[in-house]
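A.,

Following up on our hallway conversation. Structure tokens first:
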């Protein structure tokens, strides 16, 4: 019993600590409520025989599994123990993980996986691969039923990365997390390219470039605080709602909505301040803040209830939709829809990003994910158009046409096929060219176009928006929209499943 608790022994633990890492057991204890952890399968042993494996004792077969609570919230959890055969995954190690995953799905509580492993246990061959396959299958079955959280606290290499990729939120820690399909050695031998593990698959790479990670932190302790915060916003499973919190007004002295948007329509501003001006206590828990920052996603509360915010960010690329921002938004919308979290969307974008790179990277397919996920979502959907809503961007950002329940627009909203400058150049081309003073004529036509189309009133006249509201009224109308749609229940046509533009 004592030796099973000690994992891979003193030397291996010292090596783990020297790398700035906690042990698997310390991680579980730090993350869960004090004394809440119940461990299972401590005495499971591997059954491998090849390569002298029958002479090796691997405590717990390199993984710790059990149940516990986080701020009273029940969870199933596993943590790979790198001190035992590098946390490598053999048959029994995988069986422990799949057993706790089965529990999570049956009991309808979230599953947390702490990854720290050299991957498939080489000595166990196809049994290791089978183990991964069983995990991926369960990740897929559990998707949209229970929240699935992956924490990368060491290497996560090869096919092992696909379990985190199938889960809802991936947490990484600077200098500790390493995720890649093929490591530096393979890349060097196949392609002749040299790169360090950190530059290939470190925490910053996945938080800023690949978008595989959702939360970045400087230490394991900070990472666990982030996980605890996340659990305050989400429900246990897809048949529940997130627990309500006491209602709180926004801190309007700090976040004064009237002062956030500049008077010049081309001047950028930080849309996160609009979110904070509307959310309870001006609280906003941002997700993927450093990836595809032209769209902002995250959780907040309105009148004590969790909502998912999606907002174009004028500070970055004028808030356009592109390949990465579309992927980021679409996935978040689907999470919120699966877990009964209402969506609040703030719109200010000039449209989809033009460019050869974007077209070649498949902006058509990726952009379509936003249309698909908003159209598919049946949770309450409230949209506020702040400034620009042009072209496909207008439609995609939870317009009435994709079945927003409520669409509001500020008087500053410009809803049109394109911006006045571009539009005037096209439709008044001849009038401008034939004029004695083309520049003067161009300005006049832009003004004429702006007056006629670049405002919210044409859309309001068609009923595409429900009301033109003053910025200061935003919270009040969103609160009402959410209250009145709290019993919303909508079902789509019967089908096995849709075919989103993956
Ligand atoms: C068996 C392994 C192992 C593995 C590590 N160990 N990885 N044992 N199978 N995959 C063992 C080591 O032999 C060593 O045992 C102990 O764990 C610690 O490993 P070290 O190499 O000493 O640690 P470190 O220097 O920190 O390097 C960590 C590492 C390296 C970068 C992760 O171990 C490594 O490159 N491992 C192999 C990674 C890999 O290629 N995995 C297969 C990926 S393919 P002793 O007894 O000496 O302490 C894959 C396919 C899955 O996973 C497919 C699913 C679809």
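Then the amino acids I'd put at each of the 502 positions:
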């Amino acid at each position: 019993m004592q030796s099973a608790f000690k994992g891979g022994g003193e030397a291996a633990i010292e090596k783990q600590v020297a790398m700035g890492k906690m042990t698997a057991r310390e991680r579980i204890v730090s993350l869960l409520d004090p004394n809440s952890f119940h461990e299972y399968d401590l005495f499971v042993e591997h059954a491998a025989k090849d390569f002298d494996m029958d002479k090796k004792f691997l405590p717990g077969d390199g993984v710790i599994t059990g149940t516990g609570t986080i701020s009273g919230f029940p969870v199933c959890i596993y943590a790979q123990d790198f001190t035992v055969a590098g946390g490598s995954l053999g048959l029994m190690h995988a069986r422990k993980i799949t057993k706790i995953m089965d529990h999570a799905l049956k009991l309808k509580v979230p599953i947390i996986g702490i990854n720290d492993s050299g991957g498939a246990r080489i000595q166990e061959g196809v049994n290791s691969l089978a183990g991964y396959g069983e995990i991926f299958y369960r990740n897929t079955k559990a998707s949209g039923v229970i929240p699935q959280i992956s924490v990368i606290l060491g290497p996560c290499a090869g096919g092992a990365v696909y379990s985190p990729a199938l889960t809802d939120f991936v947490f990484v820690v600077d200098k500790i997390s390493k995720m890649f399909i093929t490591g530096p050695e393979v890349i060097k031998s196949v392609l002749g390219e040299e790169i360090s593990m950190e530059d290939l698959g470190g925490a910053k790479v996945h938080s800023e470039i690949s978008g595989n990670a959702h939360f970045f932190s400087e230490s394991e302790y900070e990472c666990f605080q982030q996980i605890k915060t996340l659990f305050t916003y989400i429900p246990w499973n897809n048949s529940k709602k997130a627990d309500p919190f006491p209602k709180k007004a926004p801190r309007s002295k700090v976040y004064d909505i009237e002062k956030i948007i500049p008077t010049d329509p081309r001047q950028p501003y930080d849309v996160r301040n609009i979110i904070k001006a509307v959310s309870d206590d001006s609280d906003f828990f941002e997700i993927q803040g450093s990836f595809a920052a032209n769209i902002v996603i995250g959780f907040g509360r309105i009148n004590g209830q969790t909502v998912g915010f999606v907002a174009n960010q004028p500070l970055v690329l004028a808030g356009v939709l592109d390949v990465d921002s579309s992927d980021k938004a679409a996935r978040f919308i689907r999470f919120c829809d699966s877990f009964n979290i209402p969506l609040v969307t703030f719109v200010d974008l000039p449209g989809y990003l033009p460019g050869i790179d974007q077209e070649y990277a498949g902006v058509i397919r990726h952009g379509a994910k936003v249309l698909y996920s908003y159209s598919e979502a049946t949770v309450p959907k409230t949209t506020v158009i702040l400034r620009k809503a042009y072209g496909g961007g207008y439609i995609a950002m939870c317009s009435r046409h994709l079945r927003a329940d409520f669409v509001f627009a500020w008087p500053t909203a410009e809803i049109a096929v394109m911006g006045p400058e571009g539009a005037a150049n096209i439709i008044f081309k001849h009038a401008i060219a034939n004029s004695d003073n083309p520049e003067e004529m161009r300005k006049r036509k832009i003004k004429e176009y702006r007056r006629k189309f670049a405002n919210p009133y044409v859309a309001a006249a068609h009923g595409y928006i429900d009301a033109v509201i003053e910025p200061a009224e935003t919270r009040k109308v969103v609160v009402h929209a959410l209250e009145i749609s709290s019993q919303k229940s909508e079902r789509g046509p019967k089908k096995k499943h849709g075919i989103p533009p993956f």
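The chain has 21 helices and 16 strands. Curious whether your intuition agrees with the design.

B.
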